[in-house]
Design brief:
EamA domain-containing protein; cell inner membrane; Small_drug/metabolite_transptr; mainly alpha; 288 residues; lipid a biosynthesis
């Protein structure tokens, strides 16, 4: 993998991991996320206007942002339904396992192939993502006895599939739109999903979340867009599979911040998962 896209994904992963860490500290996560999403187009309105004046915006290309928004909404829907039916320790890592699909989809759509080192990197990252949230390494410790666990697993897998799809779609979209312009249009359109969700919450709860965490909310708004734009720039220069695999380093950032700041314990699966993801990331740099 070339150095510049590798560096861009590393920076994207750090930003992504940090804003997820801030979200984790929120009192009401739905209100926190909704407020951050509503703030994004406001914060970036002036940069967007400047970007359009410099790079232009063909109205005919807006459908790329529309499809990206649709895929994102489907992903949120699948995640929500997976969390309702499965323990977080299963639903979360499975829903993050887009690398299960990316190599095959990238080959079918873009004719991208990866070498033996690349396949090893994808394997290590995928296993690391699946292991990092487990309580211990015994298969019997995984809780499958919740009602609807089979459908929950299907929702989690489909969530991972939609992540792979909108990653691939992002690579195609930035061939026709500047990455920042695509991201802004995508973010603005996604407000149509988050605004009704925010309005369904108790108004006092939303006000309290804003009063308590407004600076964190605004930070998340900035970092979410920055993280995604950096990834889109990397997609424009590198292979989809490697970008998708390398971006899982955000989990390492999240685990590290949880340990350092929140004093979360480092269980054996968590340490093993982090090491596997790091090894996979290093192999990604060596892959061609």
């Amino acid at each position: 993998m070339q150095e510049l896209p590798f560096l861009l994904v590393i920076l994207s992963s750090i930003a992504h991991g940090y804003w997820n860490f801030l979200l984790k500290r929120a009192q009401n996560k739905d209100a926190f996320l909704g407020l951050s999403k509503m703030a994004e187009p406001v914060i970036y309105a002036i940069p967007f206007a400047i970007a359009v004046s410099v790079w232009g915006l063909d109205p005919a290309s807006l459908w790329y942002a529309g499809v990206g928004t649709l895929l994102s909404v489907v992903n949120y829907f699948c995640l929500a339904n997976s969390y309702k039916r499965l323990d977080l320790s299963i639903a979360y890592p499975v829903s993050r396992s887009s690398t299960l699909f990316l190599p095959f989809l990238a080959y079918l759509i873009f004719q991208e192939s990866i070498d033996a080192i690349g396949w090893c990197s994808v394997f290590f990252v995928t296993v690391g993502v699946l292991v990092v949230q487990l309580k211990d390494l015994r298969f019997s410790s995984i809780s499958w006895n919740r009602q609807g666990s089979n459908s929950g697993l299907l929702f989690a897998l489909f969530a991972a599939f939609t992540v792979a799809l909108y990653t691939l779609w992002g690579k195609e979209a930035v061939r026709h739109m500047h990455p920042f312009i695509y991201m802004y249009c995508y973010t603005l359109a996604s407000c149509a999903y988050f605004l009704p969700s925010l309005r369904r919450l108790d108004r006092l709860v939303v006000k309290e979340e804003w009063s308590r965490n407004k600076w964190s909310i605004l930070t998340v708004s900035v970092l979410n867009t920055l993280s995604f734009v950096l990834m889109l720039m990397a997609l424009n220069m590198g292979k989809v599979t490697y970008v998708g695999a390398l971006r899982q380093l955000s989990l390492v950032v999240g685990v590290g911040l949880g340990w350092l700041v929140l004093r979360e314990s480092l269980s054996l699966p968590r340490v093993l998962g982090v090491l596997l993801i790091i090894v996979g990331a290093c192999l990604t740099y060596l892959a061609t």
